[in-house]
Specification:
With about 350 residues, the protein is an all-alpha fold. It contains 13 helices and no strands. Helix 5 runs antiparallel to helix 6.
């Protein structure tokens, strides 16, 4: 059974993501480099993971720094759609566009490597502080990035001579770094069987699949070999699995038992005692969907997004599409305001309910 607090968090993450999807639908009518539909879906899933991580940071008592890294990693990957619009050179020159793409790719890779290696450091060093974990992680990561990108940091103009295949080849080499530590993490879990927290192992499994997919894509791009043509779809499934894991982690963290279990697991680890619990059945997403659409504002918001999504495929001018989208969005804002005002008056006891008395 999902508590009201958990439902409120889930509703907010879904609604924030729907607004992000609405934004992507609107700007898709402006000139940009063509992108497959799964790329837009993955950006939306990353944005959903970002908000889930934010609420986990707010409500959890353990692994806040770990979740903070994941939130940053997911946020910057959700902003990948910017590259499609930079490619049109509408606002900036070719050099600025290419420089932005290179630095953005480097920073995305850095956040991904940090997120995975930081979990290994926290597990390997047991009860280390966050400061020590960050320093240890940076000590492992920064020398590698300096080795490959020192020239471009010292001489930014050298970026213009860098080709796309060369950038992919550098990132391909760096991707083996998190792969090594993720595998090492699995060995440590098998050897010591300690618990860093509920669902952390599942998150590392997601990172492992993402790393394999990135290496496969980059290898095919560098050596012009089409290994798999469905890696984006695999990434979509992996991100969906990540969303489900975060969903369950929110339910765990926000429960009294979950907080007690995490404290017990950390305390047990200090003595080398593995703390186990019987896994509960998976949360029914059908019941969550029923609860979500039970609220009228969620239903109206979802239907508004569906309407804007549908008009996006009609062969009408961009001006008409944007006006219809803005009009629908305005109606939605007004509806949300009236709903919030009604809830406030109901909470404060300013509403009186009159029932008609029927004569017998």
């Amino acid at each position: 059974m999902i508590s009201n607090k958990n439902l409120s968090i889930h509703f907010k993450t879904v609604n924030y993501t729907l607004f992000f999807v609405l934004f992507l639908i609107i700007i898709s009518n402006f000139p940009h480099d063509p992108q497959p539909i799964e790329s837009w879906v993955n950006c939306s899933l990353y944005f959903l993971i970002f908000w889930q991580s934010c609420f986990l940071i707010k409500n959890s008592t353990q692994n806040k720094s770990l979740l903070f890294n994941i939130a940053l990693f997911a946020l910057f990957h959700s902003l990948s759609f910017i590259v499609a619009y930079m490619g049109e050179n509408l606002l900036f020159g070719l050099y600025t566009t290419w420089s932005f793409f290179v630095y953005f790719s480097i920073f995305q890779t850095f956040l991904f490597v940090l997120s995975s290696i930081f979990i290994w450091v926290k597990y390997y060093s047991k009860n280390s502080t966050d400061l020590f974990s960050y320093l240890f992680s940076f000590l492992l990561i920064i020398p590698v990035f300096l080795w490959f990108f020192f020239t471009f940091i010292i001489h930014p103009q050298a970026i213009f001579s860098l080709e796309n295949s060369q950038l992919d080849k550098i990132i391909l080499k760096i991707e083996f770094l998190p792969l090594i530590f993720i595998i090492w993490y699995g060995v440590l879990v098998y050897k010591y069987d300690r618990s860093l927290g509920e669902h952390i192992n599942t998150i590392m499994v997601c990172f492992f699949i993402m790393t394999i997919m990135d290496i496969t894509n980059l290898f095919g791009s560098v050596y012009d070999i089409m290994i798999f043509s469905f890696t984006q779809y695999v990434l979509t499934l992996t991100l969906t699995f990540f969303v489900v894991t975060s969903f369950r982690l929110i339910n765990h963290v926000c429960s009294t038992f979950g907080q007690f279990y995490d404290i017990l697991a950390i305390t047990g680890n200090s003595y080398g005692v593995p703390i186990k619990r019987k896994k509960s059945a998976s949360v029914s997403f059908l019941s969550f969907a029923k609860a979500y659409f039970h609220q009228r504002r969620n239903t109206v918001g979802f239907l508004t997004l569906l309407f804007i999504f549908c008009i996006n495929f009609f062969t009408i001018s961009v001006f008409v599409k944007i006006n219809l989208a803005v009009l629908s969005f305005g109606v939605l804002i007004i509806f949300y305001f009236l709903t919030a005002l009604y809830q406030k008056r109901l909470t404060n006891g300013y509403l009186l309910t009159f029932k008609r008395i029927q004569k017998v």
